[in-house]
Amino acid sequence: MEGTAVRGRLTWQTGKVSSVADETPTTRTIMLDLAGWAGHRAGQHLDVRLTAEDGYSAERSYSIASAPGEPVAITVQRIEDGEVSPYLTEELRAGDELEVRGPIGGYFVWDGGPSPVLLVAGGSGVVPLRAILRHRERTGSPAPMTLLYSVRTLPDVIYRAELDGYPDARVLYTLTREHPAEWAGLTGRVDQAMLGSLAFPSEQRPTAFVCGPTPFVEAVAESLVALGYPARQVKTERFGPTGDANG
Ligand SMILES: Cc1cc2nc3c(=O)[nH]c(=O)nc-3n(C[C@H](O)[C@H](O)[C@H](O)COP(=O)(O)OP(=O)(O)OC[C@H]3O[C@@H](n4cnc5c(N)ncnc54)[C@H](O)[C@@H]3O)c2cc1C
Fold first, then answer.
1. Domain stops at, among 103, 135, 158
2. Is the same domain home to 99 and 30?
3. Per-residue pLDDT tens for 127-153?
4. Is the CB of 215 under 6 A from ligand 1?
5. What is residue 2's predicted lDDT score, i.e. its pLDDT?
6. What is the CATH number for 213?
7. How far apart are CA 184 and CA 48, in angstroms?
8. Ligand 1 center–CA 192 separation, angstroms
9. Considering the chain, what percentage of its residues have pLDDT values greater than 70?
10. What's the CA-to-centroid distance between 239 and ligand 1, angstroms?
11. Greatest CA span in the chain, whole angstroms?
């Protein structure tokens, strides 16, 4: 049975784009109708495959932005010279077909439970963390949750209205490229001092989920371990190369 389930997850299937919605000037959420979808856990990702008329194909991974039980959604940030993300954010329309396989991943997932959780995002690394926050909200989990979200400027914040609307999750933004006069929140890169200043309601170290560009994730994970987080409690998801350590 397990073998069948694994093969099922890794089989490519064609879904239909049910809608697209711009989140910021460079990011777009794509909602998918997937008849053969087996369900997913909060934090998992899927693969997208684009195939040109001459048969050339390109595959990329995208975190699932929706909670378990919700229709599958991904949120893609456009990389200007990229092969796949400009198509997904500029060309793809509602009604188009898209080839995907998944869900993938069994490590960077949050299934619930009462223990405290720290979410740390750099840029589009907020996508799977949004799925975790939504899952917590939908299931009424009592887990204390803090999101620390590093972003260049305020207009770059993805899902801002939703994130600001969670009544009992703590959401903190740190702006790395601007400091608006009216801004009372954090500024600058996520570092050990910033992480160490986050107070939690219990003595217990939270489980941390860190996601974003590879240099960002590595710097944050090192800081958390230096602060005394057990390494096994620091879960990481790396989105790929970039010279910007703050998403
Ligand atoms: C598990 C996983 C989950 C991911 N989830 C998401 C997600 O939810 N949303 C999302 O937008 N992306 C996500 N990514 C990144 C995504 O898979 C692609 O790498 C990204 O969309 C760029 O693809 P591209 O074809 O447009 O660029 P490419 O043609 O692959 O690259 C073009 C140029 O951009 C650089 N580059 C590649 N990736 C990045 C990046 N992430 N940031 C900055 N520069 C980059 C390359 O080095 C190259 O110079 C995820 C990656 C992984 C591994």
1. 103
2. yes
3. 999 999 999 999 999 999 999 999 999
4. no
5. 40
6. 3.40.50.80
7. 39
8. 26
9. 94
10. 6
11. 59
Cα separation of 17 and 141, whole Å?
31
| Alpha helices per DSSP H over the chain | 2-10, 85-86, 126-139, 160-164, 192-196, 214-226
pLDDT digits (tens, 9 = 90+) for 187-228: 999 999 999 999 887 777 899 999 999 999 999 999 999 999
pLDDT class for 7, splitting at 50, 70, 90?
very low
Are both 97 and 143 inside the same structural domain? no
Residue 36's pLDDT band (cuts 50, 70, 90): confident
Q: 74 CA distance to ligand 1 centroid (A)?
A: 13
86 Cα nearest atom in ligand 1: 26
For every residue of 86-126, DSSP letters joined together read HIIIII--TT-EEEEEEEE-SSS-B---SS-EEEEEEGGGH
Nearest 5 degrees, angle CA 59-CA 131-CA 50? 15
Exposure b/e, 39-68, CB count within 10 A at least 16 = b: ebbbbbbbbbebeeeeeeeeebebbbbbbb
Q: How far apart are CA 21 and CA 28, in angstroms?
A: 6
82 pocket-lining for ligand 1 (C-beta < 6 Å): yes
State the residue for tokens 């917590």.
136
Quote the number of domains for the chain. 2
Is 214 touching ligand 1 by the criterion CB < 6 Å?
Answer: no
Q: What is the rounded CA–CA span in Å between residue 76 and residue 3?
A: 31
Structural domain of 182: 117-238
CA of 79 to the centre of ligand 1 (A): 7
